[in-house]
């Protein structure tokens, strides 16, 4: 018996030395990984406490979202240091003059999916609740809800070879114009649900209102449109989004994931699913989006459909505190992985296929310094990889100034 115990002790000692030499290091790795994951979760919970404000009411949306109705005075905007004592402007002072509208064309209505289960009461705003898994899907907690720094191109010089490192991973098919003292833009977006080929890809259609530059790290943008972005939303739905930055994307965020945008509307959830979407050769669904600078307050107001959703206070910007100098409209696909992606842009079909098959943005107008909407002049199309994604612009009596854009991505002519 004593001999048996002695053997067992010797075996245990031998094994302890064996594991210290090799496998112990391997066994330590999972512990470190678990510790790292726990740290990420603590950081995520800290962020969630800042983002998710106490709701007055909540709704479970059929698409899996939870929509919180937050009192208008408790929204994330007022975490901004410049908005601590901000007085909410409940409605714009003036609407732009000269809105394009063809009364003979009855638009097919678009709704947000969460409306099926309720509406937020007066004096509250709907906010898509951020969940822990949403934050943990991001490349880092600090990057959640943000665009990659210096990764969005200076679109007015997208073909400049010096911008290659900035545009890596991003492909655009857009129309662009320079406007002296631009105070906004309006456009009608054709709504689609493009196929996303890779987990970290996104596809979107939007307009960019901008001033400043990358070189000075003072690029200001206001961006609005629809996007399909599985990493952000954990699904392939088309979703309404906004974005803004005052420092060339070093800061800024999607929707209400940081402070800045002041929402006043209780019906539109930024980041919420919009439906239905267009079908190839079938019914087309459109969404009107307008952003303009209020002549009295100077704030940049957002209107989606007929809803005045809210505004970006002018004091959070530098260049846009006065006016914009460039406006672009079109599509973008982002893929961080090597090689050409087959993620679709728009409908996934090229502009030449035309109405009902290719995606479009129509009734494009700009707001001048007198607060009047007018057709843009000297519009140029920009598409660097035209065999992957392309853009064509034009003008007609039924579509006003328009752009057809999009494509399938990787194909025999775009390897």
UniProtKB/TrEMBL annotation:
InterPro entries: Glutamic_endopeptidase (IPR053168), Neprosin (IPR004314), Neprosin_propep (IPR025521). Residues 1-28 form the signal peptide. Residues 164-415 form the Neprosin PEP catalytic domain. Keywords: Signal. The keyword Repeat does not apply. The keyword Signal applies. It comes from the Eukaryota. This is Neprosin PEP catalytic domain-containing protein. The lineage of its organism: Eukaryota, Viridiplantae, Streptophyta, Embryophyta, Tracheophyta.
């Amino acid at each position: 018996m004593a001999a048996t115990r002695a053997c067992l002790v010797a075996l245990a000692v031998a094994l302890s030395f064996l594991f210290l030499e090799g496998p112990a290091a391997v066994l330590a790795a999972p512990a470190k990984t678990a510790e790292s994951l726990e740290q990420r979760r603590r950081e995520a919970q800290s962020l969630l406490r800042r983002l998710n404000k106490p709701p007055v009411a909540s709704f479970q949306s059929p698409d899996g979202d939870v929509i919180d109705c937050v009192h208008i005075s408790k929204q994330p905007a007022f975490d901004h240091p410049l908005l601590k004592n901000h007085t909410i402007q409940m409605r714009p002072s003036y609407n732009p003059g000269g809105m394009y509208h063809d009364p003979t064309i009855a638009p097919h209505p678009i709704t947000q999916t969460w409306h099926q289960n309720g509406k937020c009461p007066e004096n509250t705003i709907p906010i898509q609740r951020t969940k822990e898994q949403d934050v943990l899907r991001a490349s880092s907690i600090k990057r959640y809800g943000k665009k990659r720094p210096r990764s969005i191109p200076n679109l007015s010089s997208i073909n400049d070879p010096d911008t290659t490192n900035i545009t890596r991973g991003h492909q655009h098919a857009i129309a662009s114009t320079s406007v002296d003292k631009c105070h906004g833009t309006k456009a009608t977006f054709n709504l689609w649900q493009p196929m996303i080929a890779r987990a970290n890809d996104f596809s979107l259609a939007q307009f960019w209102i901008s001033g400043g530059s990358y070189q000075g790290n003072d690029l200001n943008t206001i961006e609005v449109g629809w996007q399909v972005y599985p990493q952000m939303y954990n699904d392939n739905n088309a979703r309404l989004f906004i974005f803004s930055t005052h420092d060339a994307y070093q800061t800024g965020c999607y929707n209400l994931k940081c402070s800045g945008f002041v929402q006043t509307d209780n019906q539109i959830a930024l980041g919420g699913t919009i439906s239905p979407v267009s079908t190839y050769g079938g019914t087309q669904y459109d969404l009107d989006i307008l952003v303009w600078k209020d002549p009295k307050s100077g704030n940049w107001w957002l209107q989606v459909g007929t809803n005045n959703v809210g505004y970006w206070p002018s004091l959070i910007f530098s260049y846009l505190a006065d006016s914009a100098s460039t406006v672009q409209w079109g599509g973008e696909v982002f893929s961080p992985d090597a090689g050409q992606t087959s993620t679709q842009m728009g409908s996934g079909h090229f502009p030449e296929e035309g109405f009902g098959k290719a995606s479009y943005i129509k009734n494009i107008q700009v707001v001048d310094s007198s607060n009047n909407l007018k057709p843009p002049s000297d519009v140029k199309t920009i598409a660097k990889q035209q065999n992957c994604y392309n853009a064509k612009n034009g003008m007609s009596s039924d579509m006003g100034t328009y752009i057809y854009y999009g494509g399938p991505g990787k194909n025999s002519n775009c390897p």
